Protein: RiboL-PSP-HEPN domain-containing protein
Organism: Flavobacterium tagetis
Amino acid sequence: MFNDLKTESASKLVEVREFLDLTSNLIPPAPTPTPNSLLTAKGLFYVHVYGVFEFTITSCVKKTISAINIESTNVNNIKPLLLSLALNPEFDSLSSTKNRNWTQRWNLFEKIRDNVIAQISTDLMPTDGKNIRFAQLESIWKTFCISAPILNAPSIGGRLKDIVDNRNAIAHGNNTPAEIGSRVSISDLYNRYNEMSSYCSYIIQVFEDYVNNKDFMI
């Protein structure tokens, strides 16, 4: 089920690597200053690699939800915290009502009483909607009750923060890509690329194992 995602994520990462290789080959040796256009290219690496990471994690969540739906599992047979997704329409109805609405409360618990089939919208992403950092990953892991570590290496949390911060600085106009690119060497960017490439592979494997082992069930 995840083979197509592995291929697509890897293909997108190859594009990042090829662009990084092109940039590296065009940078003149010291002491010649790096042209502004190549500093810009270095800065845009952050936008590029974050995009692949976000695609990978959101696609994993969608595929996992689809796998849960295919199983047609009753709500009482899935892990309790996963009910926050399975009963999302009922929770939304409750949260949108200012006054107590007993009918909506009854509807929620009737779904549990009747042990209905869990059908989850693949558009749901159990985060606060912000760019994906450790806190958002933690929310995803907790919602799905994933036992595997969130990070495949301790350094990834800080690395991800660095990538998101620089991506946002460029996207929001706080810094130009050239300003961001001037702060790092091309070898620094290769290190970031290698770490994020490894992490994307790890994320896919975690979700694939989760689905194959049916870890969403009690």
Observations:
- The CA atoms of residues 94 and 104 lie 6 Å apart.
- The radius of gyration is 21 Å.
